[in-house]
Every structure is written in C-alpha cells, then in structure tokens.
Design goal:
The chain is of the alpha/beta class. It is 19% helix and 30% strand.
Amino acid sequence: MKGLILSGGTGSRLRPLTFTNAKQLIPVANKPVLFRVIESMRDAGITDIGIVVGSTAEKIKDAVGRGGRWDVNIAYIPQDAPLGLAHAVKISQDFIGDDRFVMFLGDNVIQGGISPLISQFAGSDWNSQIVLTRIEDPRQYGVAELGDDGRIIRLVEKPKNPPSDLALVGIYMFDQNIFKAVNAITPSWRGELEITDAIQWLVQNEYAVHPYIHRGWWIDTGKREDMLDANDLVLEELDYEIEGYVDRDSQVGRRVTVQRGAEIINSVVRGPAIIGENTRIVNSYIGPFTSIDHDCLVENSEIEHSMVLENSVIKDIDARIQDSLIGRNVSITCSPIRPKAHKLMLGDNSQVGIL
C-alpha cells in the first residue's frame, strides 16, 4: 500500500500563526501534526508516501525533506488551488498507480494510529474503507448514514440537517476504483470535488465500501481550541522522561518530559507537560497541559494549559497565562517604563485577553 497525505490547506482558522507557516507544521506536544501522520503511516508499514501541497509547499518541503528521518520515501504532489479532497485524489493518480492506498488529512490527530486499519483493509477484498466517529455536532464534516445492516446508505458533505452523528474522520482507504469515482463526479455548490460524492458514487455503483467506527479520540486541529485539545490528549499519552537538567530547588512532577539540553531552574513544573530542547524555565511555574517548544525562555512567569512554539520568550509577566497558543519567535515581556501600559503589535485576526 501507499500513503497519501493532504497538506494543501491554508489554515485560515489558525491565523495569524498560519500567515507564516503551514498549519500542518504546528507542533502538538512539541511535534508537528504532519510528522505524527507520517509516523503513523510508517508504523503501519507504509514507506511510499505522497504529500499533496499547496501555497505552503516550500515550508512543508523544508521541514519534511525526502523522508529519510523516518526511513520512508516522500514525493510531493502540487495542487494549484484547494479544489476539494477528491481533486487531491485525482491529481495523485500517477503517484498511486494501481496500488491500494490510505489517505490521511495532514492536520488530523487520532488515538491509536492506523496500523490495525491498514492491516484490516490490506487483508480484505473491500474497494474502500472509511473511518467514522460519533460527534455531537457533525455539521462541519462529511456525515454518513448507515442502514440497519451497518452498510452505508449515503454520505453528505457539511449538511445543515445531519442524517446521523457519524462524521468522516479524515482517514480513507481506497483501491484503484476511486479514480473512476473522482473522474465521474462534478464540483459541488462550493466549487470543489467532494470526497463524499466520490465515495457515494462507489456505493451507488455497488463497490464494497466498509465503514469503520473509531471509538477513541480524534481531533481535527483546525482552530485554537482544537489545537489545545489535541495537545492535552497527546501529552497524557507521552512516555515521560527527564533528559535535560533540573536543579535541586525545582519541583518537577511525575508526568513531565524535559527534553535534551533544557534547564529547569528554581521552578515548578506540573504535568502532563513537555519542555523542549534547549529551553530554559527560570523562577517560573509551568502548569498542567502545557507544551513549551525548543529554544524558549520562560522567566519569572506562570503559564498553564497552553502551547508555546519555538524561540519564544515569556518574561516578568505578573498574571498567569492560560488557554493560549503562542507562536514562534514571540516575545512577551513586562516593560519597566512608567506609566504602565500594554504595548502590542499583533497580526491580523489575533485574539488577546488582558486582565
């Protein structure tokens, strides 16, 4: 089998972070979401992986390379415009050839990986397998309706009145018949070739499409709240280890990872949490569900339930920072100059809460 990862989206709901980088490269527990998807494919035995890229192609290529660090082979498939998931499949036909393949959205995080799914599909005669999960409000997703026998009756993209609570997770397995489907359908009212329409075509033409209902957690990391939720869930599943330096005046909880070169000085770190390589935590409090990426400084400050990306500085902040997603190369400091004032330079669509 081959792997296909879709990483062409613009990440508009995560601006301003995505003005300067691809949303798939935002780290969850200090590892980019895209890297986690590649690792899940490798762990399932897939070594030939195509990545569909759009306007952030160069960023993704620089970060991922040719796949050597994962012992896989990466090919890049340019998508000139975001014309739908089925369009991404259509332009990948030369890469896929006649092989069966798994398609994974590059900004999704799923519990347990995909090895059992790949094994199940590879050993079957199904033409497709789609992963579903029950969510409270599926209106922003593709939704599947199943019959009493458990078979798929129909699929609808972003319905105003969902026929069920079963949303498509963003993991799909196909054989070569999917190319008949994507070439047979027409663009939706959104001007896109919808993967739900392509799968519906397979169903209507009596191809074997098997629904798999995922019971664990799944996160589509499209918004700040989603990123924090994904960070929470992944932090709880880490293998915690101390590779950096912790001085005798610090208190570091049992569920804390301190990566190589990091220093914890006269500070309290309560897990689950991760402190990245070469980051310094000085005279500070790091609360639960916090990830601090590499080469950061947190000094004389408190932060919890937050994500801080690489090369950022948080220093001398009186109030505790929480529920925050702080980007790369950010400096948050308290000015000694009086009269006291908040001085901010923020990107478009930023959100700031100040007490």
